[in-house]
Amino acid sequence: MHERIEHGIVHVTVETPRLSAHVLVAGPPDAVPVVFIHGNVSSARFFGRTLADGASRWRGIAVDLRGFGHSEPKPVDATRGLSDFSDDLDSVLDAEMLHLDGSPVHMVGWSMGGGVAMRYTIDHPGRVRSLTLLAPMSPYGFGGTRDDKGTPCQADFAGSGGGTAKPELVTRLRERDRGAESPFSPRSILRSAYMEPPARLDPAEEDTLVDAMLDTAIGDASYPGTSEPSEHWPFVRPGALGVNNAISPRYCDLGPFAEVDPRPEVLWIRGDADRIVSDHSLADLGYLGEIGMIPGWPGPDVFPAQPMVSQTRAVLDRYVVAGGHYQEEVIAHCGHSPHLEHPSEVLGLLGAFVGRKP
Hints:
- This protein has about 350 residues and is α/β, with parallel strands linked by helices.
- Helices cover about 30% and strands about 20% of the residues.
């Protein structure tokens, strides 16, 4: 075990049978445990302020997923969907040094981390006391689906997977570009896509988060992953390795969350101006084709924009029919990162939600 303390947050290296994981911990050891799961091209450090501000309310635990932050960059088997991440998370939460003793935890997942949290709840429903979905990815993956049932636009799931990543972002991540000259640099993506302009972070916090983005492992087995040619527009389909393939609808189907039992209560927090997870997402090739940003778009009958928010709502509505409950909170003037853009509001919502759970 390796441990250091920075700004009241303990950085711990947890050795598990699956991987060596970097974990951030804040708050009293005997407080209610709340586990935070970050999104794509980020790390546990995206929850640094949330951990620090919530340390008087709960014991916050934020885990770097494999290939992100300072966790081991093991290959991601995309054919398992998000299960590599879910299994890793379970092994970390079982680690003796975290002293959870198998007890249920409150879980908070942001963006892709929301999908990981849903996958974890499907796999280990008794381990989740409550689930907070913070601007979560669609339960039916990212890209290439047409309706709230997650029906693929093409049988080979064209328009999703590793080949849909912005090549210049991948290059600038690999080159560890900390500047803002390019609209595709990590810093520019943080400012204009992760958050809704004109929202800006304190310069020191922004630098920390840019560094967290740059710690993403780059390659076929990590981010963004492999791709294959397709005969269908936009002429690329998912491969079998890497993060972006793990969140492709070819392999990622979280629809079974609607039938989970026992059913933890769900808090769904999202921004009203999210540019990444939206029914009109600027990261969705279907929508980009519709607005003329990608040539050759075959039209809405063939490849409509993915209704990401509608897909999440459809699964959660089915969850209610099965006996579950969810609460949706939409934050005004907010993009893809409510906990960064409106930290006090999110902390209040989360504190009230976690605080009322037995």
